[in-house]
Write a structure and sequence with these properties.
single chain; 8-stranded mixed β-sheet; 609 residues; alpha/beta
């Protein structure tokens, strides 16, 4: 996707600065929050197990059902502290008076009973006490399998600091000491939608309109009782390929307040192997093929919304447009098509289908990043804004606030979570785990300095740093490129940027030779790679965390590299040029922190706070 070509007409004149107070008048507006990828795990669950009830937490006197820090450090998300982050986000919404709240999938760890019911308890509490309305859509973690099944996790924290496996059956982990609990099994569509039915999956008397893809879209004759009668999950199924079987589609459209239509898209795709169902995390590249009925329905919904003057806001777990600031193709060429979860990037063809169907603004999760993607077709007839909502379980921990008015302009603000009460509630238990790993000389020992994090923002930032060092660099990066980026000084990089191709390659080869033969290797400096992930995951939020000295260095380097082109032949020089080309695109991104979009004029305006 050539972003510079597609967006020249939009971004050349549209990115402007607005006042720090926003651009929408306070009267007659609606505020909608999007909290994605919560991955809620009940940290004090009742396992109903004779084998294990958790690890006693001296701070609370309760038995904690938490995962090890070792497993968190090696995962793209946290498992434990995000529970408290979710509560903190809801408290912030309550303080701001926001009552419409969307959860775009992966609202639980893996759709297990204990976690779904814990979520229901929390949502019920805030619904009653604060008048909040919650609207959910499915993610690849809920449900993992469409009709559930036996499951387990190996990495719960045991009483002595070791790992404790918990499963719904001894057959799940046949060679380990397993605690048996049915609370860790997968729930499927029937159980999840039944438990969370009050949160969008079925009609409510509070809504002005509600419909699903398998019924007539009859707005004028809408009747709540008829909507209830036709909303059974058994009536909302489609044929699953050539399997002869059917699968549920939990999509729906709802009008919770006058003038706002929320389009909740179930983008999950499952295939049948002959013995079991397997899920996919790819998203709409597959949904466009397997759920063609959904596209037809979206066209009808979008057309009806346009005709009736409704603001249509789409949300799903999965993105509908490229989310690396136009750098995905370059990332594939440098790192490989299977790295950086690039299979999840919607193709231009996929994005075009949904844009032509009538979606103009779409909120998505799944990637645990902050980003604004813009798609515009060659005729400029169809434009789509894909808003990536960060995860509360990873850096940057944040949610999106959408403000709508009667005009065609919407305002979007990213609300970061820095202070989270109870963030360190399990830190003493992690120290116990750390001592156990040291005693066993476990190679997976983690850096305990993460426990010195002063707030949740720093904690997630340190989590990303550790994840980058222990997993991302070894698995995703060309070895020599990573070595160079960790050992070339800013002065050396600026010197290299001004060299001709042959001299550049010789310079880098000599640098590599010295590094390999030197007996006094300096400690690798991860600053450039860490900054790369700050930009890739945090976009404008991440850029704010890069020290001014390095910002000045990057701007000088990018400017110097503008005249430097990479040869088609693979070399250290070409890899380094490719990398900084990707870095530049991430650095010069679309507005993603606080901005406004005019859905009729197709303009985007950065709002300076």
């Amino acid at each position: 996707m050539n972003k510079k070509h597609l967006l020249a007409g939009i971004l050349g004149t549209a990115i402007q600065l607005a006042s720090s107070h926003g651009i929408l008048a306070q009267g007659d507006t609606n505020q909608i929050a999007f909290l994605s990828d919560i991955h809620l795990q009940d940290v004090y669950a009742e396992l109903n197990s004779e084998d294990f009830k958790g690890v006693l937490n001296p701070r609370t006197g309760k038995f904690a059902t938490i995962r090890t820090m070792k497993s968190q450090i090696n995962s793209t998300r946290l498992f434990n502290e995000n529970y408290f982050a979710f509560i903190a986000a809801l408290e912030d919404l309550k303080h701001r008076g926001i009552q419409l709240v969307m959860l775009p999938g992966d609202f639980t760890d893996d759709g297990q009973p204990m976690n779904v019911l814990a979520l229901k308890k929390i949502l019920d509490q805030y619904s009653v006490e604060s008048g909040m309305r919650f609207f959910l859509t499915t993610g690849n973690h809920d449900p993992v399998k469409p009709f559930g099944g036996k499951a387990g996790k190996r990495d719960f924290l045991g009483a002595d600091g070791s790992e404790q496996a918990i499963a719904g059956s001894k057959d799940v982990f046949s060679t380990e000491q397993v605690a048996i609990s049915d609370q860790i099994n997968y729930w499927g569509y029937p159980e999840i939608t039944n438990a969370l039915g009050d949160f969008g999956f079925f009609p409510s008397e509070k809504d002005l309109f509600w419909a699903h893809p398998f019924q007539e879209l009859d707005v004028d004759n809408y009747d709540f009782q008829q909507a209830i009668a036709s909303s059974s999950l058994e009536d909302r199924v489609y044929k699953a390929g050539d399997s002869g079987l059917t699968l549920p589609d939990a999509s729906y459209v709802v009008e919770p307040v006058d003038g706002i239509w929320l389009l909740a898209l179930d983008g999950n795709v499952y295939t049948y192997t002959g013995t079991e169902w397997r899920g996919s995390s790819v998203g709409f590249n597959q949904a466009a093929l397997h759920k063609k009925h959904q596209l037809d329905w979206i066209k009808k919904v979008a057309s009806e919304a346009e005709k009736r003057g409704k603001t249509l806001i789409s949300f799903s777990h999965y993105p509908l447009a490229e989310f690396h600031d136009g750098a995905s193709d370059e990332m594939s060429a440098l790192f490989g098509a299977q790295k950086f979860q690039l299979a999840r990037v919607p193709s231009t063809e996929t994005t075009s289908l949904y844009a032509k169907a009538g979606i103009k603004i779409h909120f998505a999760g799944h990637m645990h990043i902050n980003d604004t993607g813009i798609y515009q077709d060659q005729t400029t007839t169809h434009t789509m804004y894909n808003i990536q909502v960060p995860s509360l379980a990873a850096y940057p921990p944040a949610y999106k606030k959408l403000t709508t008015s009667k005009s065609s302009t919407v305002e979007i603000e990213t609300i970061s979570l820095a202070e989270v009460d109870h963030m360190n509630e399990f830190f003493d238990l992690y120290r116990m785990e750390h001592r156990w790993l040291l005693e066993k000389q476990d190679p997976g020992i983690w850096d305990s300095s993460i426990l010195a994090s002063k707030d949740y923002l720093e904690y997630t930032r340190n989590h990303l740093r550790e994840l980058t060092k222990s997993r991302f660099i070894p698995s995703d990066w060309p070895e020599n490129l990573a070595i160079l980026l960790q050992n070339l000084s800013p002065e050396e990089l600026l010197k290299w940027s001004k060299m001709e191709e042959t001299e550049s390659e010789s310079f880098l080869q000599e640098k590599m030779r010295k590094l390999k033969v030197s007996s006094k290797r300096t400690q690798p400096d991860h600053a450039i790679i860490d900054d790369f992930y700050l930009l890739k995951n945090g976009d404008e939020l991440g850029k704010k965390l890069i020290p001014e000295k390095r910002i000045s260095f990057y701007e000088e380097l990018i400017s110097s590299l503008s005249q430097k082109t990479a040869s088609k032949e693979k070399s250290l020089n070409s890899e380094l040029i490719q990398f900084f080309g990707i870095f530049e695109k991430l650095y010069h991104s679309n507005p993603s922190d606080h901005f406004a979009i005019d859905l009729k004029k197709n303009t985007i305006k950065k709002i300076e706070d």
